[in-house]
């Protein structure tokens, strides 16, 4: 079953067409990254999914049920949502915020207190639980928001920039907890930190200018879209000879050169084997090697190419 299915989703504000027919599918029990530059429509899409905005066209299903004003309330019992900048009653303490969320989700009293204590500890807020939210930093408010989402153990978590206010240690901890949810809950989250998305996601959707530019599993992206490169530096008078030699190796996808280096792309499945093969042939040809290093490609490379108008084939 899919936790989220979006087909042909459109949303405009006046003459500003924010979403121009996007499709997206999130499998139950998976972690799905939702990417795009500022203004791409990520937050708008999330709010339409949650029924906070009304779609102009297209369909949305949650857990196999079409979303409507009649179905949204019961569906929300299985959904946890964290906005980019969570807001809580400033006079409440962290514990009181958690108790309020527990009451909204009808969590039994026997489970409520130990669960709240466990989550405050997990999100490094146990010592601050009795302090008023008005005294929390932005990072503390974000961690409190995450704790409230985890509290009812929802089948689907929708998180808008869930680690943007956290330091590297806090980010790492939250991402590890997201990974632990795989197979239990679905996580649909937006982020500007592409290395985080790459580390935890099973699948990603990249949008730009209100359109889907790419949707695929991280496994396929690494196997198909992401090609890594080797940098080879040889003496200037040997550049042409080395270039011709590289052109004879079928596993090399592309070769570019500047005044000092040859850069050749390799299918990511054959990195080590091709690297060893090239180095061996260069040395056999008695071409001095001044530098030979792997330039690993990342999800960020794919993202930037798509956003800047390129396509991945």
Q: What would you call the structural class? A: alpha/beta
Strand order of the largest sheet: 6-7-8-3-9-10
Question: What are the secondary-structure elements, in order, as H or E?
Answer: EEEHEEHEHHHEHEHEEHEHEEHEH
- pLDDT average, as an integer? 91
Are there runs of 5+ residues with pLDDT below 50, and where? Answer: none
Main β sheet profile = 6 strands, mixed
Task: Please state the CA-atom Rg, rounded to the nearest Å.
Answer: 24 Å
Number of helices: 11
Percent in helix: 25-40%
Cα separation of the termini: 29 Å
Kindly state the number of beta strands: 14
Shape: elongated
- Report the portion of residues in β strands: 25-35%
Comma- or semicolon-separated keywords:
elongated; 35% helix; 6-stranded mixed β-sheet; 313 residues; 11 helices; alpha/beta; 4-stranded antiparallel β-sheet
Describe this structure in words.
This protein is of the alpha/beta class and 313 residues long. It contains 11 helices and 14 strands. The protein has helices at residues 42-49, 72-76, 94-104, 109-122, 138-150, 168-180, 194-200, 218-225, 239-247, 271-284, 299-307; strands at residues 2-13, 16-27, 31-35, 57-62, 65-66, 79-82, 156-160, 186-190, 203-208, 211-217, 227-233, 252-257, 262-267, 291-295. The strands form 3 sheets. It has a 6-stranded mixed β-sheet with strand order 6-7-8-3-9-10, with helices on both faces. A 4-stranded antiparallel β-sheet has the order 2-1-4-5, with helices on one face. It has a 4-stranded antiparallel β-sheet with strand order 12-13-11-14. Helix 6 (168-180) links the parallel strand 7 (156-160) and strand 8 (186-190). The longest helix has 14 residues, at 109-122.
